[in-house]
Write a structure and sequence with these properties.
- About 40% of the residues lie in helices and about 15% in strands.
- By secondary structure, the protein is α/β, with parallel strands linked by helices.
- The strands form four sheets. A seven-stranded parallel beta sheet has the order 3-4-2-1-5-6-7, sandwiched between helices.
- Helix 2 packs parallel to helix 3, helix 7 packs across helix 16 and helix 8 runs parallel beside helix 11.
- The longest helix has 20 residues.
- The protein starts with 7 loop residues before the first helix and ends with a helix.
Amino acid sequence: MKIANVSPLVAELAVRAEAGRPVTVGLAGAGQMGTDLVVQLSRMPGLRLGAVAETDIPRAIDAALLAGHERARIVEAGNASAIDAAIEQDCLAVTPDLTALAAAGRIDVVIDATGNPNVGTAFALEAIAHGKPVVMLNIEADITIGRYLHEQARKAGVVYTGAAGDEPAAALELIGFAQSIGLDIVCAGKGKNNPLKFDAVPADYEDEARQRNMNARMLVEFVDGSKTMIEMVAIANCTGLVPDIPGMHGPAATREELASVLVPKSQGGVLSKTGCVDYSVGKGVAPGVFCIVASDHPRLAERMVDLKVGKGPFFTLFRPYHLTSLEVPLSAARAVLHQRADMVPLEHPVAEAVTVAKRDLAAGEVLGRIGETQYRAFAMTAAQARHAHAVPLGLAEGAKVTKAVKAGQYLTYENCVPDLSLIVTQIRKRLDQSDARFAAAHVL
């Protein structure tokens, strides 16, 4: 039995598919998330994957074969013209060249799944320069210089957006819904998906990573709390909600307890104020997202109780899942068809993911990637980060330690120098100067 398309977006994509004009996506990166996207895009009528940019060409080809592409129709392309030619022949292009992907005329929208802040920044700027909407699944780049990329996209008349499916976008759906019906936002956040261990290192997670078909380093990003910190900062910098304390509270509140724990202390909770982001390690929350709300009218609060939303005076709106890369193509479709962004950063950030040493670091060490042994992310307000002179997480990779740092201490501009040759570092330096002037003028 055929089911009618109840979603206007699905209906629009179906029309595109029938007309032979699918939204053609260019994907950067074929790691875990990228591979998921290659498969998912093969399952969504009206969307097609036109090209994948990946330095490891065999990995990109393997992802395409997994998705059901015929090997004879997977074409290696060395430049933009070759990518366009492959797409015109109804083939999938794979290329090691991100610049070529950004320049290809047959690509309607690009998705960055590289996970590297500097690579993602350079790629997004190239795509914007060629008039392409950008879906930034690379949240590390977004929290570092996303507001700059958004402004550049606005000037170019294209969309820059965070990606549907990740916890920040899923939480924003709840926040937007609550705002649309006049509810007050108390706190928003997510459940922590893995047991929290701040000093986790890849060597201890090789077996689990293999069982979950993951890279151990990537798994550690989740276990050591870095991803949670980054994601909460992303929510903050799209909404104005802030971490209540450095690192947030992260209580062991169950789904049923959220609305009595992540609320103001005056009401028996842990927060010093309303308007916060936080996370829970309690049972039944992960892998969901939540938004804790209240109403200032007793009749409306009474209705919420009557409708079994909670006992009041605070209520938890809850989405029990987020489908990560499976939802990301929706952002690409909306960016092209509706010129709509799912997540847009504020002009001036209210929160920061800073860098904390996991172990003692010696002068002269060059920092590797997030999820390894040297550092992890830690969330705080932007004002607190400025006061501490803390190095943003997005500038950590490739930075050089100039003074010994003890485990648990912040990496700061006094003990660590980011790689000034990177475009992400250069842009962030200019943004920090602008933010400092703004903060001084507004006494943040």
